[in-house]
Write a structure and sequence with these properties.
4 helices, alpha+beta, 18% strand, transposase activity, Nucleotidyltransferase, domain 5, 3-stranded antiparallel sheet
């Protein structure tokens, strides 16, 4: 399982009681805590205020994912934003939580793909393509979490029903 918590700006009509300010990213809105498997399928979503620390989502997501999957999770990959609370919670739940750290040599090169972590970043990118998820419009955070699930179902349906691209055809053009 791979965890991430991107911050999303809130629209003007969203109540301030359910939003906050993410001081690191200077974003006023909510965070979307996502737990995805190695295939990029969403197995857990929590939507706290952006002012909440990543650890709040990091302790809730493994429990939610284990409950939904009906199996025991063995390993979770997180970024450097998650702190000791997630590692301790993972140890108590028999989950090996590994922090994927950036390579110091890649400091000035902009965005660099991290091993296995790119999967959750790709899921975040495809979710943002859905109009209702580009910004937080919902008044309730549970409604926002359900929209994430709807968007992931739409992505999955599109992948299953779209024919393979022409460059994957091994037979070539019909004669």
């Amino acid at each position: 399982m791979i965890l991430d918590t991107p911050s999303v700006r809130a629209a003007a009509g969203v109540p301030r009681t359910t939003t906050g300010l993410d001081a690191n990213k200077k974003v006023s809105g909510r965070k979307r805590g996502l737990a995805v498997d190695v295939l990029g399928l969403i197995i857990g979503v929590v939507v706290p205020a952006a002012s909440a620390h990543d650890d709040a989502a990091g302790t809730a997501l493994p429990d939610q994912a284990a409950e939904r999957c009906g199996m025991r999770l063995e390993k979770a990959l997180v970024d450097q934003g998650f702190k000791d609370e997630v590692l301790i919670h993972g140890a108590l739940s028999d989950i090996d939580v590994a922090v994927v750290r950036r390579n110091p040599a890649d400091r000035g090169e902009g965005f660099v793909l991290q091993p296995k972590r790119w999967i959750v970043e790709q899921v975040n990118g495809t979710l943002t393509l859905h109009r209702r998820l580009a910004r937080e419009y919902d008044h309730r955070s549970d409604t926002s979490a359900s929209r994430v699930h709807w968007a992931s179902i739409a992505n999955m349906t599109r992948r299953l029903t779209t024919p393979s691209p022409a460059w994957r055809d091994t037979l070539g053009p019909a004669a």
